[in-house]
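Sample A.
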Amino acid sequence: MSPIGSIRNKITSAGEKSAEKLRAAAVRATARNGRVSYSYEEPQQDVLLMQETVSERMRQGETPSSVLGSSVFLREGVTPPFFSIFMTVREPDLRLFRASLTSVLDQTYGNFELYILDLGISDQVRDVIAWYREERLHYLDVSDGSGLTGAFNRAAGMAGGDYILRLECGDLLTRDALFEAALAIMQTDAEILYADEDRRDARGRHFSDPWFKPDFSVDYLYAVDYVSRILFVRRSLFLALRFREGYEEAPEYDLILRAPKSGIHHIQRVLCHVCQKNSGAQEPAEARKRALEDYFRVRGIRAVVRPARTGRIMEIDYIPDIFSSRPMVGIVGGKVLDEKHRIIGGLQDERGNVLFEGWDEAEEGPRQIAQTARNAWAVDVRCMRIRPELHGLYEEIFGCSYEEHVMYSRDNFGELSRRFCSRVREMGYVIIWNPTLRRVVRG
């Protein structure tokens, strides 16, 4: 077998065992400290070399299918995407600036261009770029006062990429970031892609606080901006939407709210090390709040949006209620608690596992995951609200009316809940898990 053939399968599976282990650790963690044991593992050297070889062969004109072969699924007739990456700077810390530049230029996938949008007035950024002598690196002086929105929109119109990515100065792309994004694009044709991330220290040597994000959930997006840090957007879609004035502190969040939600893909891999200097900044809660309020207003949804205690999560009160405001919401479920207020039911995955089982109701988990609303595969009937149109289906599944259902401990709540939720999803409704909705089961 050729060297390429012998390690081809490693391209998309590098680190999966460690990622699985880390995800399990994250689920078990509690919010008492909100931390998990973590160590970022870069893909093995042979995998990185393989990615560079594949990238170069495709750049030379070979088709992705001929290079990768039948062992890797690709859509028919795909071509390798070209990325336009943008970094906006204003008198930056040059050490952090160089680190970010190097992380892009060291990518195993070389089909990209990098634009530096300089809002400053000194020559230091221009001097650093000149030192690299890299033809894929472009400098744009945008110190004309147009600000982030105008500068970025103008630069995106000038760029030649199929997809764009905005990188914060100080953040580092993993070496395989663009390769993984390109592969996902060739497999899914998604218009928007986001990935997992962690935090880096000032020296870029220690990584911590991983964020293993869920697949796309519109209600989780309403509550938390979990996609903006490393977000690939098809350039034609971006040019149709563009960043808007007034939302400079949360431009990607405002954009993805307005974007179609059918073509969004989650790359389940850490592809960005976020600089702690950047992550420590105050959350742009006010800009996010205004963006979400405007999103609801345009769609005729009456709702009150307010930041939760920490400011990271948005809480939404629908007027007069969620079923009246959002016709496609079928079920809202919450936490089922025992007498000691430990979670014994509620949010379930497709295999029937109860997420956060055994946790105290007040525990938050990493990034307040256990206190954040999200869309659900299934929720527990013992703490469930349903829209009136589903009362007939409820009686069919549970054998009694929704209003008069008396639940006994011997009942098979889990299986019946999943069956009911499955039927509801088949009808086109969405299911929401709301952690503020709770019910204590005694005995």
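Sample B, a different protein:
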Amino acid sequence: MRTRSMHHAIWKAMGLMAAIVAVAAGWSGAGAATGSFAPIAADSAAADTTRVPQPPPAPAPAPAPAPADTTRPAPAPADTTQPAPPPAPADTTKMLAPPPAPAPAPAPPAAPAMTKSQRRAAERQARREAKQAKREAKRAKKPAKPAVPDDPLAQWKVGRSWVSVRGGYAKSTEKTSPDGNLGFGLGYSRFVYRHVAVGLYGHGDLLGKFGAAAEIEYPITAELTYHLQWKTALRPYIGGGGGAFLHKYFRTGADDSHWHGGWYLVGGANTPISEHSVLGLDARLEAITGDPGQHNPIFDSERRQIDHYSVKLSYSRVF
């Protein structure tokens, strides 16, 4: 009987110890899940694919804002009934002083007194300048001449004037006359019609020489020429004229000079070389009244008609 009681007490004590161990194991398992051994438990849970994953815990709610403090009074509004104070007036007692004026430039030294010769020179210069100013004013008043177009016949237009200089060969056809020599001339002509020009010319011809003795002639004539206005580089002309011929024997031992009347035929050609310049060739055949009673020891007597001719190069300036 006693033995049975002891066995019963032992089994009862063992049951109590098992219960205590079970409770202790449960507490230790909960502490291990939340303690430093949580990663190992998590790894074990991850390895166990038979379990359903649990959702993450919900975030903690934000704390509610603190209620406004209604115990303190609101600030008083600004007083808009009173006007703003006016700005302080500017202090005019402290005005800036103006900058000092610059010093005047020194006066130039007085010009020295002019002498009488200097005053006369200055007066002459002033008169020249005044005349030049008048000429310039007259030129400004005159209308500008229209530009001359590139017309090949511009120099032969009606109203054009030619001033000509000539030089070349001159000779007498008398049997006892020497070889020909030089001749020169100067003249003026003007186109009065489309093809017709009138002119006045003076020449000096050395008809020939025997040693120091010379036969000289000075024709002063008027002429009328007809110009063929071909549209080419060369424009020929023909014409005639007449006038007075001063015939002179010089250094012959019986020097004499007398006037003869005569006429001549003229022909030649001209070509323009610029807008106001013409180059030409002029040839003349002159018939002069002679004096058979005139006798010269070197050049012999004259016939009733003396024939002279000349061929000269001509340069004309056109206006």
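Observation for Sample B: The mean pLDDT is 79.
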